[in-house]
Amino acid sequence: MEFKVALDTMWVLVTAMLVFFMNLGFAMVEAGFARMKNCVNILSKNFIVFAVSSLGFLVLGWGLMFGDGNAFVGLKGLFFAGGLDNSPATGLAYQGVYSAISWTGVPLWAKFFFQLVFCGTAATIVSGVVAERIKYKSFIFFTFAMTMFIYPVIGHWIWGGGWLAQKGMFDFAGSTVVHSVGGWAALSGVLMLGPRFGKYHNGNINPIPGHNLSLATLGTFVLWFGWFGFNPGSTMAADPLAISHIAVTTNTAAAAAVMSSTIISWMLLGKPDLGMTLNGCLAGLVAINAPCAFVSVGSAILIGLIAGILVVLAVIGFDRIRIDDPVGALSVHLVNGIFGTLCIGIFAQDKITGVATGNGLLFGGGAKLLLAQLTGVVSTAAYTFIVSLLTWAVLKATLGIRVSLQEEIEGLDIGEHGNSAYPEFLGRKPGYSFLGTKNS
Amino acid sequence: MEFKVALDTMWVLVTAMLVFFMNLGFAMVEAGFARMKNCVNILSKNFIVFAVSSLGFLVLGWGLMFGDGNAFVGLKGLFFAGGLDNSPATGLAYQGVYSAISWTGVPLWAKFFFQLVFCGTAATIVSGVVAERIKYKSFIFFTFAMTMFIYPVIGHWIWGGGWLAQKGMFDFAGSTVVHSVGGWAALSGVLMLGPRFGKYHNGNINPIPGHNLSLATLGTFVLWFGWFGFNPGSTMAADPLAISHIAVTTNTAAAAAVMSSTIISWMLLGKPDLGMTLNGCLAGLVAINAPCAFVSVGSAILIGLIAGILVVLAVIGFDRIRIDDPVGALSVHLVNGIFGTLCIGIFAQDKITGVATGNGLLFGGGAKLLLAQLTGVVSTAAYTFIVSLLTWAVLKATLGIRVSLQEEIEGLDIGEHGNSAYPEFLGRKPGYSFLGTKNS
Amino acid sequence: MEFKVALDTMWVLVTAMLVFFMNLGFAMVEAGFARMKNCVNILSKNFIVFAVSSLGFLVLGWGLMFGDGNAFVGLKGLFFAGGLDNSPATGLAYQGVYSAISWTGVPLWAKFFFQLVFCGTAATIVSGVVAERIKYKSFIFFTFAMTMFIYPVIGHWIWGGGWLAQKGMFDFAGSTVVHSVGGWAALSGVLMLGPRFGKYHNGNINPIPGHNLSLATLGTFVLWFGWFGFNPGSTMAADPLAISHIAVTTNTAAAAAVMSSTIISWMLLGKPDLGMTLNGCLAGLVAINAPCAFVSVGSAILIGLIAGILVVLAVIGFDRIRIDDPVGALSVHLVNGIFGTLCIGIFAQDKITGVATGNGLLFGGGAKLLLAQLTGVVSTAAYTFIVSLLTWAVLKATLGIRVSLQEEIEGLDIGEHGNSAYPEFLGRKPGYSFLGTKNS
Amino acid sequence: MKKIEAIIRPEKLDGVRRVLESAHCAGLMISEIEGHGKQKGVVQQWRGEKYKVELLPKIKIEIIVRDQDVERIAEAIIGAAKTGEVGDGKIFIYHVENAIRIRTGERGEVAL
Amino acid sequence: MKKIEAIIRPEKLDGVRRVLESAHCAGLMISEIEGHGKQKGVVQQWRGEKYKVELLPKIKIEIIVRDQDVERIAEAIIGAAKTGEVGDGKIFIYHVENAIRIRTGERGEVAL
Amino acid sequence: MKKIEAIIRPEKLDGVRRVLESAHCAGLMISEIEGHGKQKGVVQQWRGEKYKVELLPKIKIEIIVRDQDVERIAEAIIGAAKTGEVGDGKIFIYHVENAIRIRTGERGEVAL
Ligand SMILES: Nc1ncnc2c1ncn2[C@@H]1O[C@H](COP(=O)(O)OP(=O)(O)O)[C@@H](O)[C@H]1O
Ligand SMILES: Nc1ncnc2c1ncn2[C@@H]1O[C@H](COP(=O)(O)OP(=O)(O)O)[C@@H](O)[C@H]1O
Ligand SMILES: Nc1ncnc2c1ncn2[C@@H]1O[C@H](COP(=O)(O)OP(=O)(O)O)[C@@H](O)[C@H]1O
User: Does C288 touch chain A (CB under 8 A)?
Assistant: First the structure.
């Protein structure tokens, strides 16, 4: 027993560290996909977001998410993860106020740290979508809201023993809890903010190329790496069969999505666009998040292939409907977060790594599971979108959420931070990078 | 027992993740050592290569490598790692078609994932050597060939219970299986492709400086880090004495090679060239790959020192014989892969971490081991070089393998992908970076 | 027992790898904070420093630090970690000459590797402070001195059973042993070297902006990640409660310091400076190093908040007193190394993760612990500063330590290495980057 | 033939190019310069110290035109580049002695 | 004295420099510009949208020569820079009133 | 009006700007060029091969001044830019036919 606790704790901590490391991945992808003149701002947002999450989730988020309470929120041990708790005791031996997560036999702080890095991921997703025009201060405040009561409430519903868990909805590693929540929060933000200056002009869509594809590729590799913490770690126990299975479903879905996104962009756009390949990889990883422990490696290939196609169409589609997402995060996290969640309903095979999910649609389980998943998708959408929209609205009315047009043109680096990311490199000057270009 | 399986699985997965992460290292080293105008292309190749490997090795490679069969190829359980298998059972308890790897007591998917990341490494080595002139499409097809039947066959010979294993050849972590195979495949490619335009001109060797030494250094650190997965992980079991020993031989050889390559380049070239130091580090790591578990820390110093000198001479030497390797990968992986394999025959000390290798030449074991190693080196060279050459020839005759001269001059980024890596940075324009220079 | 050794070894090796990875972090932070024209030189220094450490600590450092001896130095098993040793035996079962570290039950090479990466960290701290003017050769020689007899002696005093350990001074993960030692050695270097050309001119402080904040941010994330090896790994055993606790105190202090450094720089400077935020993060991590296992999560918040403020004031303060530290490493490692060491005396809670430290000032333990800590701080300062100063003086008298003024103006990349980091990027030319600027 | 050398704000480049196109201006050269005139510089900060970057990014456009087109083109540029704020830039006119089209060897105004 | 201002393709710089050397051309200035003339731009893509970069990279070489050398040098440049395809560039000739060598203060043609 | 075109060492830019300020020079344009003259290039190395970068970074300063100011300004530049070593650079003087201030439309010397 003692060894098992030590072993499981080590697994949980090591995988949590990998997930923490994904912050670097997000920072580099988002900075690389944005313009030089906003680089410091994006780096700053992606850097501070985890600090804010660490405090927000400690102060209130954890308690709201895992505290014993009703079907909607936790009510006990709300603040500073300070409730009674005798972890690593599990099952009947457990005595404390965080019973929803007492199934894993690791110390309280290991649970907290693992859950914190997930919360941080949801928060960081928002950063990319609202990039290149949001006020730094408002983003910080939104992140507090996100990690203190937006994410934790959905978390409670699904992972904290809330009503969705009771309804039989599954989300192994967070396609909904983390990615869709991040996506909906971001979507509400982008609707409040509007597109970047110059993006849509006289009916044209002006491409605004990212300034550094080396960084973007670096970031995507780091994310892929971190995902081996995200998914296999979500067992929160070093269960050999499960974690091996999950490592391979995760990787296979990513690989399939890389291929399908590359091929589809080659076909649609004439050439294999690296940005699409990178987004494709992330799409596959997001889509396999929820089902990674419940589907076969064969199904993982299929899920990946579809995810890679979805993301390319979504990137193009969002632009068509004038939703300006500089880094493609909506297509990756929102669209594929939803798709991945539904995949359980379609591809699940009962007890494939031990968990009794029942079978999905394609494996003779009928629509029951799919419906539970759909309920999860819709209710998450409703709560997250509405509460986020309200939060943005309050911020807009008080601090303001968008920088001035002049600051946007000159770049947020000087305006918000007084820094420039590459002061010694000669660049095409602000406002010039995309203005020398015209749709063909 | 149960704990041992869990512990070993965790070790195998964590080290496999580190090896996966080496993909980032290769991408950054190769991108950094190449020119700006080809940066997107190199990033794309290094990114997709692991996706292709993941599919190729799943579909056929694993079966050919580890399936029970004859001395030359696996024949059972060929496709989708789908043969019978009751891992984590080991030894006599094992029932299945992958008996060559039944010595390690971890689940099948853990074995698969660990072996996959090694296969991916062999494939990615090719990428750097053929950089800056190969067609993207042809590289993708070659990678399928590499991971489906070039690498797995050699793998079967040495790690899959084939004839070289039976002959008493040893290769602990893949100096031959991974690095030499990658090196020979790359060499055949470079011979088919020829040098980059402008590299050798009127009897002169024109240096073509890499565009970003920050990225190259970053990549080398990531590789060094990943090597702690590569070597200690190859125990495929958390054997405390062995993995500690291997961590230190690995690191020490790298350190010694860093020093010797720096000093030798300082002496030969007048100044300590950073590119040589970085290549030196990798050379030491490749050389210690095969012998890391079989030699003492003292021998590791020697091996590293020699590797660092070898790589500098090889980089200069390949240029003299007009073999154009933009990133020095032949000098690192091929030359030192061979050297490292032979080192077992020279420096091995019987059972130093438990494995009964017999002693090497310097430790009173005579030439027996060295001869077995040499057989491995030569036969690997023959098979890999010939089959790769054929594969390249087929590709050349069908899709073509080299981009047009104009595309090469303008850069593969625009030509193959329609992207540019740094659209906002002002650069010395394509075709200009090295033409403003002249040999002194 | 056997499992415990395997488990602990795995923990020690994995965390040691993370600490090794911090070399990348330091390289990127320091390169990013320096100018383009010195980039290759900084990368080279930060790359070779770990190779030198690996050899220096192997040859002599380890023996001096952990060999049985007197209260001041180790005397047995001095060279090549070659003394008698029956690790992983512990306690009374231990027979060997490295008894000071026989409390952890892992193999000798695991102990060595873990201690080596700490030694390497101390050495790398110096690199940043002396950047942009030191001769490459002299830096290499200083690093040998650092890892062979400067660091190991202090290490012996505190972690090797020396007189400070006996006096009851605590330093869990090295606020003093690693960071202050690095800081004092760097300070002595900077005093011998003087400021960079142009930094202080006619009574003005000329800011010299770093060339790449993307790299600096990347590096800081890598360091934060590596710190999860640094602190939780310092248990050198997979003790579930301790490592979970430490992971959270570490992360929380970093998060708090990010917030406080951002806010204070916003208040003092008008805008939230990214460089300050990054330094703030590192300051929090350094400050929590020593106390991470001895204080509560609540105290960690306080420690982090103070560290973040300290570092901003120190960065500004060092400039005022004309100590030119290009990367802020003195403010991070020296100032907060001292602060963190003292924090044990202030915030310690007896046995919070098992170790009997006694209580600190604020928890009713009186000034006893604080005084022991202070003794450690002062004696470390005295030894390290004096011996480092002597070493620098010897180097100055023999090889010289500072490059010529012309080389400094033209950049060390060409002068010391004959390379340039970004040969294809158009930059503001050497000597121009900061001269086009003027204090407002 | 004359050379029109216009120093403009970077963000006006797009507009200026558009009017030049309408004005059937055959070719142009664009370079990035840093200028200093009446306009005040930008304040930046680095680790606690503020500094002013007094050189501001400007775009230099050079166009070689026939004598009779100078006024028309200059007016077009002024129209598109003007904001009325300090920093709008200048136009300078120089005499050009000859022009050669490398491709054909044509000389004089036909080479434009 | 005259200034020869040649706009050429980037890939021709090396060849042009070589002939200039043979022609004993004392000194030169090189800058990177972006040009727009008859030559069509390059199509790039970003995340699904294609765009045309209409400004093409060109190299501007400026050489100040004695009056009698203008023709010879211009011909040398044309010889080395010509491909016959659209986009080869132009040469413009200007009058230079004076030249000063900063190092010595020499003026006029000796300063070249 | 005349254009003063000064090619100087990059490290002298700061000094030159300072004297220009004292000389009440209204505005200037700065660009980064690469030059080649009597000065020898810099030797670099890449993976075992040495190569000479023969084009050296220089700064080009362009100032348009009234005729009567040419000598004064040129002398000021020489004073600040001179080291006496090969590579100090040159100053070239051109005639300017007209100047226009975009902001106001003013023409001639008042536009400077
Ligand atoms: N006498 C001059 N010589 C060269 N360039 C000039 C001169 N005067 C102005 N410029 C250029 O024109 C730009 C705009 O001038 P400025 O004085 O700031 O604005 P305005 O023209 O509206 O008064 C400057 O940045 C500089 O590049
Ligand atoms: N009238 C002009 N004024 C300034 N630059 C010009 C002019 N005409 C052409 N150029 C420059 O010359 C380059 C080549 O011209 P282009 O018309 O494309 O080819 P060609 O000279 O072969 O007809 C252009 O990119 C532009 O930089
Ligand atoms: N005839 C010329 N035409 C154009 N630029 C020149 C000419 N001569 C010199 N230059 C420029 O002046 C710079 C300095 O010239 P150089 O001959 O090296 O030194 P010095 O002027 O001290 O003899 C060169 O790098 C080049 O850019």
Answer: no
Residue type at F44 in one-letter notation: Q
Q: Residues 62..101 of C with a Cβ closer than 8 Å to B: which?
A: 80-81, 88
F30 CA: nearest ligand 1 atom: 27
Residues in contact with C215: Cβ distance below 8 Å, sequence separation at least 6, in sequence order: B214, C28, C29, C31, C32
- On chain D, the residues whose CB falls within 8 A of the CB of F97 are 2, 93-95
The per-residue DSSP string of C349-387 comes to -TTSSS------GGGT-TTHHHHHHHHHHHHHHHHHHHH
Residue E95 Cβ < 6 Å to ligand 3: no
CB within 8 Å of B157: residues ≥ 6 apart:
B71, B72, B163, B164, B165, B376, B379, B380
- Please tell me the total number of residues recorded for chain D in this structure: 112
Cβ-based contacts of C414 with chain F (< 8 Å): 42, 44
Ligand 3 lined by E27 (C-beta under 6 Å): yes
Q: Can you give the C-alpha Rg of chain F in angstroms?
A: 17
- CA–CA–CA angle A398, A401, A406 (5° rounding): 120
Nearest to A433 among B31, B51, B424 (CB): B424
Query: Contact B353/B246 with Cβ under 8 angstroms?
Result: yes
* Per-residue DSSP letter, B161: S
Distance CA A76, CA A64 (A): 8
Would the ipTM clear 0.90, i.e. be above it?
A: yes
Q: Which helix (H) or strand (E) holds B204?
A: strand B204-205
Q: Which of chain F's residues have a Cβ under 8 Å away from the Cβ of C435? A: 11, 13-14
Q: Is the peptide bond before B88 cis (omega within 30 degrees of 0)?
A: yes
| DSSP one-letter string for A99-126 | GGGTTS-S-HHHHHHHHHHHHHHHHHHH
A9 touches A307 (CB < 8 A): no
Q: Is the CB of D90 under 6 A from ligand 1?
A: yes
Q: How many A from CA of E28 to the centre of ligand 3?
A: 6
**pTM as predicted:** 0.95
C205's torsion region: left (phi>0), alpha (psi -120 to 50) or beta? Answer: beta
Note the Cα A34 to chain centre separation in Å. Answer: 19
Contact B419 E43 (CB under 8 A): no
Q: Please give chain C's pLDDT, 440 residues, in tens.
A: 689 999 999 999 999 999 999 999 999 999 999 999 999 999 999 999 999 999 999 999 999 999 999 999 999 999 999 999 999 999 999 999 999 999 999 999 999 999 999 999 999 999 999 999 999 999 999 999 999 999 999 999 999 999 999 999 999 999 999 999 999 999 999 999 999 998 998 788 888 999 999 999 999 999 999 999 999 999 999 999 999 999 999 999 999 999 999 999 999 999 999 999 999 999 999 999 999 999 999 999 999 999 999 999 999 999 999 999 999 999 999 999 999 999 999 999 999 999 999 999 999 999 999 999 999 999 999 999 999 999 999 999 999 999 999 899 889 999 999 999 998 887 765 333 343 343 33
Q: Give the distance from CA E53 to its chain's centroid.
A: 22
How is residue B76 written in tokens?
């059972």
Contact A175, A287 (CB under 8 A): yes
Q: Does residue F51 belong to the interface with chain E, where contact is any CB pair within 8 Å?
A: no
The shares of helix, strand and coil residues in chain D, as percent rounded to the nearest 5, are 30, 40, 30
Distance (Å, whole) CA A409 – CA C149:
55
**Spatial separation of the C-alpha atoms in residues C428 and F30, rounded to whole Å:** 11
Q: Which two tokens stand for residue D18?
A: 């558009």
Residues with CB under 6 Å of ligand 2 are: D 26-29, 62-64, 101, 103, 112; E 7, 35-39, 56, 58, 86-90
Answer yes or no: do A48 and C259 touch at CB < 8 A: yes
Closest ligand 1 atom to residue F102 Cα is 21
